[in-house]
Amino acid sequence: MTPPRRYWDDIEVGEQYESPGRTVTEADIVLFAGLSGDYNVLHTDAEFMKTSIFGERIAHGLLGLAIQSGLLARAMPPYATIAFASLRWKFKAPIKIGDTVRVRARVVSKKETKPDRGVVVLQRAVLNQRDEVVQEGETDLVVERRGDA
Fold first, then answer.
1. What is the pLDDT of residue 88?
2. What 8-state DSSP symbol labels residue 26?
3. CA dist 68 to 21, 28, 44, 108, Å?
4. Of 82, 138, 89, 87, nearest to 109 (Cα)?
5. 141 pairs with which residues across the strands?
6. N or C: at which end does the chain have fewer Cβ atoms within 10 angstroms?
7. Sign of the C-alpha dihedral computed for residues 131, 20, 79 and 81 taken in this order
8. How many CB atoms lie within 10 A of CB 118?
9. Residue of 80, 81, 73 whose CA lies nearest to 19
């Protein structure tokens, strides 16, 4: 059974969510390189990366962004989302093969934009197994309002 969707009217500023963890694997990086076409040596050349400042291959920043989106979907009740409107994002540290990441999110604001919808701003932080923030930012989601609003 599909859980009920939460409308803009139901969402409260200050709500917080935390996802379970997910370990990033070599397969994730290889598959993302194939999907995105990004075969940069940072992600694909183990020998070259041994001499880099990272000491090993790292995940694509956009892979981390995609993973956090999926993790957050597992952590929060589904919104009646119409669109992902915008993103303000910082890539603060590498995600390495074997890192386990999770997401913390908080509703920081909401604003009615039309009678049938509004924007919910979520502040998000991606943390690794050492509680280091590796990515963070804000996303704006356009969320449907209740029909009786």
1. 98
2. H
3. 10, 13, 22, 18
4. 138
5. 84, 120
6. N
7. positive
8. 21
9. 73
Strands (E), the chain: 16-18, 22-23, 81-91, 100-114, 117-127, 133-144
Q: What are phi and psi of 26, to 5 degrees?
A: -60, -40
Q: Are 142 and 81 a contacting pair, CB within 8 Å?
A: yes
Mean pLDDT per 10-residue interval, the chain, length 149 residues: 86 98 98 97 97 97 98 95 97 98 98 97 98 98 85
Give the Cα separation of 23 and 101 in Å (integer).
6
Looking up tokens 């709500």 gives 15
pTM: 0.93
CA angle, residues 83, 88, 89, in degrees to nearest 5: 115
Give pLDDT, residue 147. 77
Select from 3.30.70.2210, 3.55.50.30, 1.10.530.10, 3.10.129.10 the CATH code of 8-144: 3.10.129.10
Q: Which amino acid is at 125?
A: A
CB 87, CB 66: distance < 8 Å: no
